[in-house]
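Workshop exercise sheet. Pairs work together: one partner reads the sequence aloud, the other fills in the structure field after running the prediction. Swap roles for the next sheet.
Pair: D.N. / O.F.
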Amino acid sequence: MVRTPAGTTRAVGGRVLTVGELEAAFAAEVQTSPLAARPASGLLLAFRLVLLFLWLVLGLLLVRFVPRSVSAAAGSLPGRLATMAALGTAGVLSSLLVSAFLLLVLPAMAGLFVTALLLAILGAAKAFGLAAVFVAVGRRLALGATRGSPLFGDPAALALGLALLGLLSLVPVAGPVVWAVASLLGIGAALVAAARSAALRPSF
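Structure field:
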């Protein structure tokens, strides 16, 4: 009921919303608006594409400067995926456990330095190993390519493998899982390659 200027009362129909209800309704509308989601998703997609391009550049540099090592690591992957994934998982977990232990027993600066060094080694192993994974996948895709074909050779194989795994990594939910498995395979292949290199190195 409201009072009119003439002094009479009159019933008013409808529902009166409180300030809190209006704020909640506005927040819900903003969250469900496609305009609010597009910029964030577009920015995330652009960021992922830039990362994939950086992986391509890094992989091509590795194929250019250490071609035999990358080729050998890629050749060791087929038929040994479970072993490589297990080795990669063991390497990651071991690095985490060693880092945590060193942070507890060493002085703060020394612990941080050693932890950063371990993370750098793990990152280098992942970069080398992913290049090998890309080459292995690309070789499978370009199995029938002949010499002189644009798809022949490890650089082309690396680009093909990265393109496939990169597209799969953009799939919601499943994409991060695919990339994580590829990373573990790569780290395992890098560890095997490092062990072989150490075994072949002459001792004095």
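Discussion prompt: DSSP finds seven helices and two strands in the chain. What would you look at next?
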